[in-house]
Fold this protein.
Amino acid sequence: MNGTGHSGRSTALTVLSPMPRLWAGPLRAILYLRKRLGPSRDLQDMSFIHFAHWSVITRFPGQERRTRYAYLLFRSDFNGDWDEYIDAFSIVIPLRMALIWGWSYGFPGALPTEPFRRYIRRNDLPVDHYWSAYPESSVSEIAAALRVRDAYSDHLGDTDPADAPAHPAWPRFLAAVQGDLHAWERDDDLAA
């Protein structure tokens, strides 16, 4: 199948794609610019992604001579099915996938999705170790929990949770976090 690692609901993916050395510099510049601009809105909206990062490698640690190729390294953690994850990149941001992976040997294009999936599988590396701080939680659940924590602090301060329902700000707090509490139920329904 593929070399992904799992921890609870989270999956790790590591893809190493060879590319001509002469394209390493321009691709590094593109990736640097993308990093300076911050995460794009379309990737942020893909709430099942914990982490996604591309790097260009021109020399491996301990290597004395330059290799014939440079390599594009993609590392990611996500919730959900492997095929659906790759399809999401292919469908949602096909031009960006072409801009990033188009420098690599054998890249078939982001669309249609099946050749892109085969390409990623061919270059997928085994994950020997994978750890997740919250293995049973999705990205959406973690983000919702952080918003609930912040809202609790804003509305109730240092109030002991056992005393919170008697606090005058309790109804405002509940109104503020209702959508985030409901988000956990939706994620649990999707996982079932």
In short: Helices lie at 24-37, 41-45, 82-92, 94-101, 113-123, 139-156, 170-191. Confidence is low (pLDDT under 50) at residues 186-192. Residues 1 and 30 are 31 Å apart (CA to CA).
